[in-house]
Amino acid sequence: MAARTVAVVLAGGVGERMGAGRPKQLLEVGGRPMLAHAIAAFDAHPGIAEVLVVMAAGHLREAGVIAAPFRSVTGVVEGGATRTASTVAALRVLDGHPDDARVLFHDAARPFVDAPVIDRVLAALDGHEAVAVGVPSPDTIVVVEDGVVASMPPRETMSRFQTPQGFRLGTIRKAYELALADPALRATDDCGIVHRYLPDVPIRVVEGSERNLKVTQPLDAVVAEHLATEDPS
Ligand code: CTP
Ligand code: MG
Fold first, then answer.
1. In percent, how much of the chain has pLDDT > 70?
2. Which of 21, 135, 153, 191 has the most Cβ atoms closer than 10 angstroms to its Cβ?
3. What total of structural domains would you count in the chain?
4. Whole-angstrom distance, CA of residue 208 vs CA of residue 92
């Protein structure tokens, strides 16, 4: 039997850069909250057995109402002060799951994740313990130190990371165990934790989608509304 797959929808942030006065994942695009779009994508996917929502403190009731119609949601739990702490909160809930279970972490602020992207992550998890989603960078990315270009990595080797990021549960658990024991732990994404603390684990990168944008600031909400209207999902 294939290992159980859990999708964790991370909605523990407060959306400071969006400046809406409430968490951005509660804002509507195309007539429903971003959080509902993100949950719906995983709920509808046949490869996902369970969805766990991690919500910002003080907004659990609202998240519960949004999550209620989705049959695969097994819990709405409170997140932490950082994204890392919110991931750790989810891992605690998943304590009872076996090491070979698969877990996908997704930003609730990416409402347009779709089945093909989820398919690619799940397929890659058959052969890898860690999987990321990336899209090519249209811009040249440079490393700037003290206001001066320190290096210019070739553009074709650059990838912009999106979510979901997928892992064997045992692998991401081990990586966080090491990370939490490190007083110098710096917040990064979940693949960053694996890359830093389990450097021998290859992180497979699969193709993301330009539609799978993260709504971070007000301009992104304008783009998101346009995308939602163009193809309501
Ligand atoms: N996130 C989380 N817990 C946190 C911080 C962030 O679960 N303590 C989630 C956010 O809800 C979002 C995703 O991680 O879905 C990506 O984070 P980001 O875009 O930075 O969202 P916010 O932290 O809410 O925004 P800001 O940094 O502008 O405050
Ligand atoms: Mg943030």
1. 97
2. 191
3. 1
4. 28
